[in-house]
Amino acid sequence: MADFTQTLMTAAAIGSLYALIALGYTMVYGILKFINFAHSDIVVLGAWSSYTVADQVLPRLGYDSRTIPPLWIGAVILPLIMLFCGFVGYVIERLAYRPLRRAPRLNVLITAIGVSLFLQNLGQLDFMFGASPEKMPALLPSWELASFSFGTGEATRKVVISLVDTMIFATSGTLMLVLEYLVFRTKLGTAMRAVSYNTDTAALMGIPVDRVISFTFVLGSSLAAAAGFLYVMKYPGINQPAHTVWVLLGLKAFVAAVIGGIGNVRGAVLGGFVIAFVEQFGAFYISSNYRDVYVFALLIGILLVKPTGLLGSPLREKV
Amino acid sequence: MHHPPPAFFSRSAHMVWLGVFLAICSSGCNGTKADPTEIVIGHYGSMTGSEATFGESTDNGIKLAVEEINAIGGINGKKIRLITYDDKGDAREAGTAVTRLVTKDRVVAVIGEVASGLSLAGAPVCQENGVPMISPSSTNPKVTKVGDLIFRVCFIDPFQGSVCAKFARESEKLKASKAAILTDQASPYSVGLQEEFEKAFAALGGTVVSKQTYQAGDQDFSAQLTAIRGAEPDVIFVPGYYTDVGNIALQAKKLGINTALLGGDGWDSSKLGEIGGKALDGCFYSNHYSHQDPSDRVQDFIKKYNAKHKQTPDGLAALGYDAARILFQSMQSAKSLGGADLAAELAKTKNFDGVTGRISIDADRNAVKPAVILEMKDGEPHFVTTIQPGE
Amino acid sequence: MSVSHPMPAASPIAATPFRPTGPLMGVLPLAIGIVVAVLLHVILPGFVGPYYSRIVIDIGIAIILAVSLNIVNGMTGQFSIGHAGFMTVGGYTAGLITYYGSYFIWGTLGKHGVFLGTGEWLFAASCIVGGLVAAGAGYIVGLPSLRLRGDYLAIVTLGFGEILRVVLQQTGKVLDDGAAIRAAGWSQWLPPPVGGAIGFDGIPKYTNLFWVYTFVTITVVVAYRLKHSSLGRAMISVREDEIAAQAMGVNIARQKVLAFVMAAFFAGVAGGLFAHERGVIISPKDAGFQRSFDYVIMTVLGGRGSISGVTLAAIILTALPELLRDFEQYRLIVFALLLIVMMIVRPQGLFGIHEIWHFWRRRSR
Known about the structure:
Chain A has eleven helices and four strands; from the N terminus they run ααααβββααααβααα. Chain A is mainly alpha-helical. Chain A has one domain (2-305): ABC transporter involved in vitamin B12 uptake, BtuC. In chain A, α6 (187-197) packs across α8. Chain B has two domains: 38-155 and 294-369, Response regulator (Rossmann fold, 3-Layer(aba) Sandwich), CATH 3.40.50; 157-287, Response regulator (Rossmann fold, 3-Layer(aba) Sandwich), CATH 3.40.50.2300. Chain B is 42% helix and 19% strand. In chain B, the strands form three sheets. Chain B has a seven-stranded mixed beta sheet, sandwiched between helices.
């Protein structure tokens, strides 16, 4: 029972990270219809710039590696990183994707792979982030908010709810609510949905399509940055920027978006949690050998049964 | 825009295919001319990609050794020049890089790789072209079996596996009878060490109660650690690289696991303590040497490395350094720099005072040297004991 | 998807001095290709040395993979990013045959025979069997393409590669001496002992310029003949407009699966060549998405459906990182930038849907 609850909580925390990343994929896909392979590199950028800022700023404020800074520092760093990555997302869209607006989608995809390769190998250089893993300074105390035990005596197992996990859950939850509001309750969101529904018609209706697309990238990139920030809070040993594991993280998040129904904002969130649960419970109850397999097998299974994903609307065939 | 259906036989098509053929044929020239005042050695490693940190460390260690030897006038008056090629952590690229080193750049010896899988790709090329190869840190027994020109300066999986098993089973600090294993299933090093540990641990009367795996670079180990927690082991063997072990230790502590972790030389890096910090207290790993070893060769190396590369050397840097120094020593005494002569001299290496221990090369061209067990305290490894080979 | 280019429509055939017809159309290029392969094999290594010969071999393998992927991605307009998965299936299968087969046939594990000797024929046969097994895998992976389209399919093919990678990691150690092979019971053969994470070490290294360029010729000729056959036209029609194609009586499902099967077959053959190449150890990593990306990039850079364009892209993209070798850590950055710039300046790829000689002829006229 303890193990079950523990796995459940881990899955919830990881699920919210997947969901945050998946949102970026699903928004870009919804509008431009291509897999933004460089999205995972924005997560990396978010993670590594969080580290750089924390590593440079904290000692100057008088916090050494052993003292935990007050909460507001994290609360300041997060929006800064989001702004920065949002800007980078804008630049990438402007320079690499906009010139390809009328090109076949496969080209945009290759460009995205190119951008991803570029960011990875640039990040790996010594004067950027370097090629070795680093330790993210703790911005949050390692408190246990609650812990409860199952069993008695020797077999007692604790289930711990840590502050970090709670913060991840709360922060990503807040961001998702903000996004939900933005997409479904504001003019800009309406414009985004219109562009995603039909770009040409949207343009005819006077919607500045290019600006809306830029905004989508900014939004997606800043969510990815937030995910990167939360990621290094949870896992302080940060993998180097060109590690394949980042690409795999991105792929899993994309799988989440597909499972939820690509282009569907709520679906991406649902998908993020679904794959986190499958991955964690599969690894715990079946075998950790096949952790990545569960995710992709689930994907293939769901696509065969419901090709448009869990919450996706049926494809409209236009003749 | 309308074109006639093209054919293989149109004259223009012929010209194109001929052009392609000529382009392929003429795309090169034979090996570069040797400069008589220098000796060229090669290194192939992962300078980009997931394992870049391993390649860089090794390269830094080799560079330091090259700089030192050139500062004292090189070998028999000839300076050493090092050529390093990136293999992206990919076997095909490793094969290409080594082919280029031995056939185009005409190096007299090759140092590389860290990963056993890549050493196995490069070694046959060296063997066939008669160029000796020294692997600084490939621990898989197969590597030196490729041929009589392939050497290594690290110990092999069976030795390290039994060292770890013995320490887990017999040391006063652990006295473990139940072990759990958490292996990096994508890394041959980790899998090899795990197999040998399992064998040795069972031979000593212990049982393995849980076997879990991860993939290098994974960041979340909760599911595996929760399963291990349920099996209640006395020790958790984690034969991985420091890049992952820090996170594993942190998450184990978070789950309330106070069982000691035990690992191999893949742990050795200052980054380990930096990332794992206090969570690693009371964990052990086997290594080639201890940073606290007061002897001059170790302290000198650490000082010089720090001055040159602005970081503390990790185990891979030290092994790269030793590989290069053993090579230079053999070059000095070898009859010629031909592959056979150099290999014969390398094979004679006895009690070489390396940073990573006193190294002798045995009949199978593997390094024989003692292992040390280190204990983590406050993010720093502390010397516990030395285990001699054959003990 | 918008129709960006008109299909090469039939127009009066230009009079060329030499133009065989009928069965010769297929056989002659094949014969010429094999002669070229022999010439390459005999002349090239002595001429440029082992390093450049090796790059030429790598180029050949890349051509097979890129040209075959082009059948799916370029001609049929599907989107597969699991091509390295098929390659790995073929490579492991071929390796199993030559490695363990050599033992059962000749009682030794090493290379057997000389140039064009019995060992090499076993190797060639193993490549073909590898291709067939990969084609079987292609059939299975191609089935979802009946229900899925575009990027969904891409993700499924990618998932196939990743699943394969993890599954191959679970395989047992290579049995490296006769006694072990003889003693091996059923349990050791299932899953086959192909080395797990470290890769399939010990495969006899048969691959040489002759075999690589023989298979390159076969691949290119088949792809070329396919492109201009009714079957190929049907595939292209699926790419241009599925609904219109269906209305014209093209069996879309059949074309898609067929494209997958054919592409997978050649990828499997290339895998066999790759596994037997000197200085290569085929390992689970090869099935991962990164290698697949390489070939997708080649097909897009070459141009959708342009066989000569894709061939040229395979040559350039294999040789370029080698030329940039001296830049060490910067070479992949340069490579990535070139890719982005290329896509922006020439979005249709080097040659679009045309072959190289189209441009030649237009100018010479």
